[in-house]
Structure formats: C-alpha cells, structure tokens
Amino acid sequence: MGSKNTGSASRKARIEEMRRAEKSRERRNRILTITASVVIVGGLVVGGTVLIRSQSGDSDSASSDSKNSSGKFVTGKDGVKTWSTKLTQKHVNGDVKYPMNPPVGGDHNQVWMNCNGDVYTKAIKNVNAVHSLEHGAVWVTYNSKASDADVKALAAKVKKTPYSLMSPVEDQKDPIMLSAWGKQRTVTSASDPNVDKFFSEFVQGKQTPEPGAACTNGLSQ
C-alpha cells in the first residue's frame, strides 16, 4: 500500500514538474514573440521614415531648392559674379526652378551631363548640367546673338579642356556666358581674355563641391 502511495506521489510530482516546465516554455515563447514583434514593428517604422525622407528628398524640386532663392549674385572687381548663399546639393527627380539663368548650383538630378570637353549643339537639361558644375566643370553657354565664329572658337576650346561642357541657352541674358558652381560671368567674345582666366580659376577650382568626381559615364545627347 505504501509503495502504491509512494509511486502515485512520484508521478504527481513528475507531472507537476512537467507542467511547470511547459508553463516556463510558454512564458519564454511569449516573451520571444513579443520581442520579435517589437523589432519588426520598429524596423517598419524606421524603414517607412527613411522611405518618406528619401521620397521627399527626391521629388519636388521647387520646394527643395527654395533656400537658394534667398541668395543673389555679388559682382567682384574682376567681373565674376558669386552667389551670395550656400547652394543646396540634393538629388531630385523632377525639374528645379533655379533663381538664376543659367543656373550655377542647387538641387539637381543624380546623373550629370558628360563634361569631358563635351560640346552639345542642342539645349541640355539644367538639372543635369548643374551636377556637372558640382563636379568642378565650367559650362559655356550661348544664344542666337553669339556669332558663329565665336561659337566655333569656344567649342574648340571646350573640346580640348577636360571638366568643361558647352550648350546653347537661348533665354539667357547675354550672348556668351561662363558658369561654374556658384560662379558666373559674361564675356564679349571667344577672344576675350576673361575666358582663359575663368577656365584657369574655376575648372576644378576651389569652389568645386566634389573635386575629382567623374565627368564621363554620365548623360549625353
């Protein structure tokens, strides 16, 4: 009789121990499930925030470039105009309303125009050309008032100058203009000595936000 009672008590003890172990496993599983859920939710929140910020940084150009509108050109004794405020450098998907023409900086497309002495005979997009300026290029622009001789001479200079590009900008103020990041000037002709001075100072000059960045493998017409 005593042995039966002893055996029964022993079974009850083992069953109770198994129940406690099962409850302990259930608690651990609940904790792990809750922890995993928190991590997943946190990841989704962070990912969503990053996505929203990324989309806001790569969308509307007019709003993202608004800081540049508060600046203005200040003309130096050498005739070179310098933009008075720091120019923004975000990558955007759409067009940008630049406060100057041709633009000398600001938000731009993530793809640059090839600027390894590239001469474009048709207008190019400002958002791509500005990226070239960020890489340290000088951009030569002209309109229909520029003489054919000057256009040909400037094209010849650009073609032999790495980190430069040239294209027509019909609605610019003057017949021939030179632009670099944050810098701009008008020249009277291709033989104007200020052409060489501008190239010498601003091709990969101190104003360059990303010196040495590529001027090839970008966009071409």
From TrEMBL:
<keyword id="KW-0812">Transmembrane</keyword>
<feature type="transmembrane region" description="Helical">
    <location>
        <begin position="31"/>
        <end position="52"/>
    </location>
</feature>
<feature type="compositionally biased region" description="Low complexity">
    <location>
        <begin position="55"/>
        <end position="70"/>
    </location>
</feature>
<protein>
    <submittedName>
        <fullName>DUF3105 domain-containing protein</fullName>
    </submittedName>
</protein>
<keyword id="KW-1133">Transmembrane helix</keyword>
<keyword id="KW-0472">Membrane</keyword>
<dbReference type="InterPro" id="IPR021454">
    <property type="entry name" value="DUF3105"/>
</dbReference>
<dbReference type="Pfam" id="PF11303">
    <property type="entry name" value="DUF3105"/>
</dbReference>
<feature type="compositionally biased region" description="Basic and acidic residues">
    <location>
        <begin position="13"/>
        <end position="25"/>
    </location>
</feature>
<feature type="region of interest" description="Disordered">
    <location>
        <begin position="55"/>
        <end position="75"/>
    </location>
</feature>
<feature type="region of interest" description="Disordered">
    <location>
        <begin position="1"/>
        <end position="25"/>
    </location>
</feature>
